[in-house]
Amino acid sequence: MTRENADADTYEQLINSFRILALGKPFITADEIRRELPPQEAEYCMHRMSRYHDSSAPPNSYDYSSFSRSLFSQ
């Protein structure tokens, strides 16, 4: 149970980190990812993140919440 709680905290921390990089938006853009992460990490994220599907989101927006969940469901 301790391990599960640690994983939940880490998962939430990752989402909060992306939320900070995305300036509070529920999505992060490719430009924000490239600006904030080293090139290899940015490419890794963008290849594995789903596109954020919402008409209010700009093109090349990514869903960091589902990406974070997928990392911790392994």
Automatic annotation (TrEMBL):
GO molecular function ontology, one term from the record: actin binding
Record has Repeat as a keyword: yes
Pfam families: EFhand_Ca_insen
Keywords attached to this entry: Actin-binding, Repeat
EF-hand Ca insensitive domain ranges (all copies): 7-73
Superkingdom of origin: Eukaryota
Name recorded for this polypeptide: EF-hand Ca insensitive domain-containing protein
Organism of this sequence: Panagrolaimus davidi
Phylogenetic lineage: Eukaryota, Metazoa, Ecdysozoa, Nematoda, Chromadorea
